[in-house]
Amino acid sequence: MKKGIVLFLTLLIICSCTDEKEGDWDDNIKLSQKEFKFDAAENIALIMTQGDFWWISELFFRDGQSFDISDIDTKAKNFIITESDFTLERKNGKEIVITLLENNTNDERIFTVGLQAGNYFDGITIIQSAD
What we know:
Blueprint: H1 2-16, E1 35-38, E2 43-48, E3 55-61, E4 79-82, E5 86-91, E6 95-100, E7 109-117, E8 120-128
Parallel strand pairs: 1-8
Antiparallel strand pairs: 2-6, 3-7, 4-5, 5-6, 7-8
C-alpha cells in the first residue's frame, strides 16, 4: 500500500513539472515592424498585425509626456487618436497608421506605443531626429 502511495505521489510530481511559465504568452500580436527611425520632417509609419485581439496600453514620448487614452476604446477595430504631435489610427483591427508631425525642437523625440493582448506585451518605438 505504501509503495502505491509513493508511486502515485512521484508520478504526480513528475507530471506537474513543466518548463512553461505561468502567464507566459507567445506573441499573439505579431507586429510587422517594431522600430522606426524618422528624420525631423512629418513621417508616417504603417504597421500590420496578424492578430486583432490587442489594445493600446500606453502612449508616451520618452521626455515624460504621456497621453490619457482611458476614454478611448482601443480594443475597437477602428479608432483615431489625435494629439498635437501625432495621430494614431487603427483600421480594420490589423492596421496601425502613426503620423508623427514635424519635429521643430532641437531634441530627438522617441515616441512609444505600448500594446497588449491578454498577458502578452509588445510595442512600437519611433525615433525622430531633431530639426
